[in-house]
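re: that chain from earlier
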Amino acid sequence: MQRRCMKFFDLEAQLGGLFKILALIGFVIVYPFAKISLNKEIVNSIFEFSLNRNAQKSVSVNQGNCLLETNFIGFQEKLNEKKDKNCKQIYQVNQNFQKLKKNVNQSVEDQSLFDHVLDNTNNKNIQNCSLQNQKVQPKSQLQVALIIMKKI
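^ sequence. v structure.
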């Protein structure tokens, strides 16, 4: 016959299993009471029940709740003010962007109209030169544009 001793890790595993079973039994017993207590706290926080013995406690809790509500309302107001300020800034930036976009488009249109008028004037001058064999004096772009505007 050989003597057999339990090793430390086997003992630890057995004790761990035992503690898990005890914890499971404890959770099964405590769960309904915890659920009832939670529901009671929720109902008491929503509805106010005042009993004579708890009247003073209720008053102090209500004052604390008022302070919390006041702080929360003040926080909401500050948050709404910041949102409004940000919305106004975004609106102003959008308006400025639209104005700049409009100005750029107008500038591009003006430049393309000026280039078109200048091209037409140069083509007419070249045709007049070739037909009449005359020298055409070079004019500045501004002078050409003014002449064309007078004709239009």
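The helical segments are 8-46, 55-132, 141-151.
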